[in-house]
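Sequence design from tokenized structure. All designs in this work follow the same two-part layout: the structure record, then the generated sequence. An example of the structure record is given first.
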């Protein structure tokens, strides 16, 4: 991808979005490869856990900001919608719309990642590998606790809705 852009000396919006998505995807895959081992050693019931609370928080934070991969998938869908269906030119997209695509794709997971770090919302997940958003003690009595609401909104609700809308609009004749 980058070699092709260097040969033609033209780095388009499509290639920049694809490159950014690839960077976050690689970060996520690398994080998943070590996440199983970086659980807190003292509290984890799983074998080969050699981490602590700090490593678990770091894994959870990288998992959270890796949601940018899904956001970039949605932005690629909107890019195709704008170019193919609406006829917007690449120059117009690159100048006016692309900066907002990057701000939303990176900023949304980053803001929620920092918020969860401040709220101490990361911990070892019981039904998966590694660490991510966990329910705190108040979540056992309160179904709509802060950590659970933030995890739904940041990880599933809004990004998934945006991606689904993008796919439905692009797929309709």
């Amino acid at each position: 991808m980058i070699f092709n852009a260097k040969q033609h000396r033209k780095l388009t919006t499509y290639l920049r979005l694809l490159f950014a998505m690839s960077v976050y995807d690689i970060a996520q895959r690398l994080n998943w490869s070590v996440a199983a081992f970086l659980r807190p050693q003292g509290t984890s019931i799983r074998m080969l856990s050699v981490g602590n609370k700090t490593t678990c928080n770091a894994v959870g934070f990288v998992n959270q900001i890796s949601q940018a991969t899904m956001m970039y998938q949605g932005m690629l869908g909107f890019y195709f919608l704008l170019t193919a269906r609406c006829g917007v030119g690449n120059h117009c997209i690159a100048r006016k719309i692309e900066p907002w695509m990057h701000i939303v794709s990176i900023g949304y997971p980053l803001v929620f990642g920092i918020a969860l770090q401040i709220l101490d919302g990361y911990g070892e997940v019981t039904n998966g590998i590694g660490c991510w958003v966990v329910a705190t003690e108040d979540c056992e009595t309160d179904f709509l606790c802060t950590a659970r609401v933030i995890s739904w909104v940041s990880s599933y609700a809004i990004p998934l809705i945006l991606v689904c809308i993008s796919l439905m609009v692009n797929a309709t004749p």
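The longest helix spans residues 90-118. We note this feature because it recurs in several other targets discussed in the main text.
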